[in-house]
Amino acid sequence: MKLIQQVKLFFQEGTSDKVYEIDLCEVGTDQYVVNFRYGKRGSNLKDGTKTTTSVNLTKAQAVFNSLQKEKTDKGYQIATDDSQTTVVLPKPTKALTNTLEGSILQRLQDAIDGKNSFKTVWKISRVAWRVGIMKFQEAVPYLLKLVDKGDKMQKYCVLWALARCADSKALSTFQTNYANNSNDDNARKIALEGLLNVSPAPEKQKLVNTLIEKLPQAMQDCFASNRVADIEPIVLSRITEKQTEYTFLETLYLLANEHPIISKILAKALQVMPIRPPHFKHIRSIYKLAELRDDVLILGTLSYLFESKPYMYQGVKKSWRSSKYVSELGTYIKVKDEIKSKNSKIAFSDSTKAYLQRRDLKRLKDAGNQTAQEYVKLAAAILLSYTKEDYTEAYMESQGYGSWDYKAKKYTHTFIERPECANKLLLNLILNGNNKSMRFTENKWVKGERISETSSSWYYNGSAKKIENVKTPIQRVKELNSTPERVDLYPEKWDEFPQVYIQLLMQGKNDLVHEFAYKNLKFHPKSKELISKIDKSMIKSLVTSNHSIPVFFGSEIIKERMASGIDNELIMFMLNSPVYEAREFAITVINLQPNHFLEDTSFITSILFSSYKEVRTWSETFLNTHTLQAEKWQLIVGKSIAKMLGETFDSKALAYAHFALKKYADLALEKLSWNVVLELLDSPISENKVFASDILLLKSNSIKAEDIPFKIVSGFLGAESEQMRNNGMAIFAKYSDQNLLKAHEMLGQMVLSPHASLRESAIGIVKKLIPQSTEFSKQICTSLLMALRRKETYENAHESVANLLLNDLERYLKEVELKDVLDLIYGNYRQGQLVGFHILEKYIHTADMTLRQVIALANHELLVIRHWAIDFFEKNISRIRYERNEAIRLLDAKWDDTRLAAMNFFRNHFTKDDWDVDSLVSIADAVRSDVENFGKELIMKFFEEEDGEQYLTMLSQHPSASMQLFVTNYLERFASNNLERLKTLEFFFRSALMRVNRGRIAKDRIVDFLEKEATNSEETAFWLVALLNDMVNTLAVQDKASFIQLLQKLKHLHKNLKVAITFEPLVIEQ
Hints:
By secondary structure, this protein is of the alpha+beta class. It has 60 helices and 12 strands. A 5-stranded antiparallel sheet has the order 4-3-2-1-5. Strands 8, 9, 10, 11 and 12 form a 5-stranded antiparallel sheet that branches. β1 and β2 form a beta hairpin.
């Protein structure tokens, strides 16, 4: 049996002294029991069990917690060791109870004894909280007796105080309360913090490991590889992701004592985190834990945020309705119900904001009552949170409306002066807390007394009232010449730690904070001593600040140190300062002693990379005026390239450095080693790649262009940078003609480049090389012809290619094969079609073309090509006659002009001997009506009697109404008295007769013809009746009537006929 958890309880009252021990033990896999022992202290304890059979861990833990709660509710307390004894206070005396510590102990003992020795009543939670604030160790034994008495608030406050005191006697109390799942979450969090504070090293490490395992995997990996700093981007990324919980923030903060950098990471995260759900509940937990730890970085950050950020909604007053419109959500919310929900949509009301600000204000004042170190740490953290954007100028404020003065007959207007940063409570409290002329009213600071003015207007424009002689913080600093009046809240505490003034100057981001730090440091007794300890890195931080006062302070230090000699590095710091005056001073110093700075190649290198326009302009003038030796430029080039590869610069600074080196160090660049150039080419910064191409172009002046690897040059030609492409082309153009001829494939690609400069250069090279090599010309010609079949790489690309082919490569077009010509003609692009037609017309032997190929061209979208095809027919009449059956396909063309030309061709050049029945019928059998009519025209023109039956049979199969009418002309001559012929025409008869509302003339002719044939022949009549029986079912009334009449007539003539209807005699009633 393995002990998993144990708690020892005791009860002491009067003469009673009892103990009660509870054990949670493991007896097998997922099998647990809860046992207990009890009895008088020092006697043999009786034992028992709460689980008759083993249960799982969840149930066992519940039984354990329930039993512990049952006993503590009866007055049992958790023992801190085996020799728990009653803490006895001295009898309260006036001297003892008059001290704060004695009063606290007495009130705690009263709570234990259930009495009150004081006239006033304090809640135990309030007393416990005061113990925590004071970290009053002597009170710990009393708190241990009270931890399980009272309500949830009392338990929370007692645990909070114990965690603040961090006394190891509370270890078991923390363990029990953290393990007890029935406890409030907030109480368990405080208990966990207490455990982390007092647990022995091995147990503490286990807790830390458990916390790490609760973090997202990416963060766990950072801890595992000891890269805690790398958590920052992960945190900043995850807080922007939409989630319902951000518990990892609280877990991370619990680990901050082990890894202090976590506090800095979370401070950054808090600055960008919305003080809104679902983040707010985690922010509040971190805030409470930061109070427990006295973590001034987190407290200062949150104090600033609670002051600066707007509340989300206004709380609901008791007399108001329960719903409130929340503009951020765009809807009404039942506030009281919503804030109780686990995933509340609202948080940080105006009341919460005010409460947190009051709490921060009280903490600041409490810190003022403690040591100087405690106060200065907290105040500095708050001041460092304010930014440049928080600064606002002083102004006069008016209500706008005046009160009428009956005596003066004018309006009286009242004004108040709002000081700088009037809406920043903590900022002005820290900086002006002893300024008797300032007070905080209506959530803003006011300076001085109210000012009244009279006016004839009832409305006064407040913006017209100005404060006279207003000076900015930097102006006041520059004019400072005597010890300023100290109006800050606790000046003596600040002066105990004057080094913090330097911290505020270096890390602060607000002008008022800088002014406060500068003035107090300047006139501090240890000022010179502190300033003398400021090293170069600190000076650089000052003069490169984005704020004017730190730069001014840094500049003063540099000027003072210049008395003992010029320090080039300090001058460079000023030259790189964001403040113009600092840069101007540095330029003045350099101009006074140019030779001194010209000797320093590192200094010259640095000025090439300035981010400021006036510095770059000055440096160009400076370098134009003064000459440096080639050896120095070689050193400068080396150092400059090292900076390019190792540091990051803005594009303008980098561009100027490249320009200056090309202008002043071109000879040094020519001699640069290949390895250095390759490093620049491998740089992820595009400007460095361009610079590498500039260097290679310079090198090509002193070496053969072919010595530059062709792979590098081709890379330049395909680069996105125009400068790189131009450099690559310039190098490429220096290749010998022999090598250029080998690069026909690349030249072919460059001719099609979307970049004009590259394309024009390539075309020039191609034109130069064409006369020199037939093989090269053929390859370029093939490449360009293929390009005409692809999509344009730039506007009018095909036109440019076509011009090059027709003007410079004309003689090579005759070698293009017919297949390739036709591919061009049938391509999707007009210029390719025209070039293809040009070759076809000029170089292709038409005898090699099939007639079907010619006819296909007669279907082309270009009129000129269709005309060429017709012209081919006109020029090859004998061949067309010979290939007649193929030639008549021309009549199927989709273009009207082609079909018309085809008809005219066959009318004019074909005679009777050139046609036969099949060919004429095939023309007449066309789908297009104009071709069908042309076919009928030819049939009528070249009709022969002996072909009549064949025409009748073949044409009767045509489905069009027009052709069926045409066929009826042949019935009398070629189908009369011929039943067999009629049977072969049955499909024709059915098709024509069953047309609805169409072909009336054809129908009438057929009916008349069939009636005549059936009248003359009973055999024909029997065949016709079967046909007519089907016809009477037609929907057309007129047709049905004629069919019925015909059937009646035939029935009368031929008695044995079987018709589909019965004829009844007409009966007329009299």
